[in-house]
Design brief:
Number of strands: 0
Oligomer: single chain
Number of domains: 1
Distance between the termini: 32 Å
Radius of gyration: 16 Å
Strand content: under 5%
Largest sheet: none
Length: 91
């Protein structure tokens, strides 16, 4: 598990710094891209702060519920991708 985490962790940083701004640039008009990027950065920083503060409390429950939560989110993401396949063609 640690090896998988170590291998895929850099991909999260790449996605946050490259993929999201490119996707926002394609979806948002050029006169609103700065606002959209600032919202993206503020939500990422807010999520980091929340994760930093809540991680010690949630760690005890993480092993019990992580598989269930991962499966549910993966299925929801798959449903969204299937429904929005025309958006994926333009990327």
């Amino acid at each position: 598990m640690f090896v998988v985490f170590t291998v895929f962790y850099p991909l999260a940083a790449i996605a946050n710094s490259v993929v999201y701004p490119v996707a926002i640039a394609n979806m948002v008009p050029s006169n609103r891209q700065t606002l959209a990027e600032s919202i993206n950065v503020s939500l990422a920083r807010g999520g980091s702060c929340i994760a930093l503060l809540t991680a010690p409390f949630l760690f005890a429950y993480m092993l019990e519920y992580s598989i269930f939560i991962t499966v549910v989110f993966s299925l929801c993401f798959l449903v969204v991708l299937v429904q929005r396949k025309d958006i994926m063609k333009s990327l």
